[in-house]
Amino acid sequence: MSINMSEKNEIIKALIPLEEKHKTNLTVDCVIFGYDQGDLKVLTIECDMDPFLGMYSLIGDFVKETETTNQAAKRILKFCTGNDDIFLEEVQSFSEINRHPYGRVITIAYYSLVQIGKTKMTDNAGKHLQWTSVNNIKEMAFDHKQILDLCLFSLRRSLRDSPIGFELLPKKFSLKQLQTLYEVVLDIELDKRNFRRKLRTMDILIDVDELQQEVSHRPAKLYKFNVKYYESKKYNGFKFDL
Question: Was domain 25-160 assigned CATH 3.90.79.10?
């Protein structure tokens, strides 16, 4: 297919240094999921910008000229949680022309999984951020509800075919805790026997020979995720399916 002269000129223009009027702002928005006491939560901040004043907002920032979008997302996570080693997944770009009231802004959405008890927010971050139950969020500033919903959909899809759910649990956990996590995040009810049977067939848990401590019910056995086994098998046809 041939390119006419007009199209050729437009392509050439796109290759030269951008004029200021053609520049677009780039941000990242982070959906930081946490799990606490049988509830899936997301880290939010109160929006201080009209016309969304006081509404829930995701945590995000502009991408610096010296960093990639991944680096920007990790910088935000470090500031908000105090942790460097956090599960992070890029989901999608959002580029609706009027998505931001102050100008043309394209954002890259990420979601991450953290253990709420291990977060160490800086004093400055802690004054403004809050963990909010996903079920309690009906609307958000900008297009953040759309971003949250898409990231939740992506999390649920990945949770079924990869062991990312363990990122939300303590290192040692009971089978009931694991099942409850899946039921809460997926918003479904699972059959106990089938769930445990699938776990046994995958052989991905290690019995740590310990029982729960300081519980009001009969203490359950504790397990941990067999990371080495999973890593050695995942590229050889191993199927994770819960």
Answer: yes
| pTM score, whole prediction | 0.87
SS3 content of the chain, % helix, strand, coil (to 5): 40, 25, 35
Distant-in-sequence, close-in-space partners of 88: CB < 8 Å, separation ≥ 6: 70, 73, 74, 77, 110, 111, 112
What φ, ψ does residue 111 adopt, rounded to 5°?
Answer: -125, 150
Distance from C-alpha of 23 to C-alpha of 203, rounded to nearest angstrom = 52
Cα Rg of the chain (Å, integer): 22
DSSP state letter for 49 = S
User: pLDDT per position in the chain (242 positions), as tens?
Assistant: 455 555 545 555 555 555 655 568 999 999 999 998 899 999 999 998 889 999 999 999 999 999 999 999 999 999 999 888 899 999 999 999 989 888 889 999 999 999 998 888 765 655 689 999 999 999 999 999 999 999 999 999 999 889 999 999 999 999 999 999 999 999 999 999 999 999 999 999 999 999 988 777 888 999 999 999 999 988 887 778 87
Are the C-beta atoms of 175 and 223 separated by less than 8 Å? Answer: yes
- CATH number for 171-233 (one of 3.50.50.60, 1.10.10.10, 1.20.1090.10, 3.40.430.10): it is 1.10.10.10
